[in-house]
Amino acid sequence: MVVVRGNKTGTLYMTSSYRDSIAVTNASITSSLWHCRLWHMSVKGMKELQSKGKLPKLKLIDHSLCEGCILGKQRRVSFSKVAREPKAKKLELVHTDMWGPAFVSSLGGSKYYVMFIDEDLSMQFHWYPASADARLGI
After folding, report:
1. H/E/C letters for each residue in 15-84?
2. Which residue from 30, 22, 66, 29 is spatially nearest to 48, judged by alpha carbons?
């Protein structure tokens, strides 16, 4: 199969004419396989290649949606734009997370850290306990 012909210039292959240089042969396999080989080209694009004689042996271009095309068209959906009502008092809502154990101890000898985030103040407080079962001592 010849895809592109060109002359090597340094480390690049330069093509002289893009119109006549692309030729695909041995297209007697299914259109789904050619869809994957041509980087998940659309049916419209494959029909255009067929009309230009680049896929001469491919009689019918009809392939169902492949998993790669479906996954490639997915996108992340952002969170709701509606803001929730902030808490009115300090320490009314506190988020916490504990991380550890670390492979290497901190300078103070701790292998864990606990993070507290106050919803009202939007501030973070960190605590570095000596062990996972250490108490706050409040």
Report:
1. CCCHHHHCCCCCCCCCHHHHHHHCCCCCHHHHHHHHHCCCCCCCCCCCCCCCHHHHHHCCCCCCCCCCCC
2. 22
Q: Which pLDDT does position 130 carry in this prediction?
A: 78
Domain range list for the chain: 7-71, 81-138
State how beta strands 94-99 and 113-118 pair: antiparallel
pTM of the model: 0.35
Rounded CA-CA distance 76/74 in Å is 7
According to the model, what pLDDT value does residue 136 have? 59
Q: How far is CA 6 from CA 3, 20, 22, 43, 54, in A?
A: 10, 11, 10, 28, 18
Helix, strand or coil, per DSSP, at residue 108: coil
Q: 62 in the Ramachandran plot: left (φ > 0), alpha (ψ -120 to 50) or beta?
A: beta
C-alpha distances in Å from residue 69, one per residue of 20, 42, 49, 55, 115 = 29, 10, 19, 21, 41
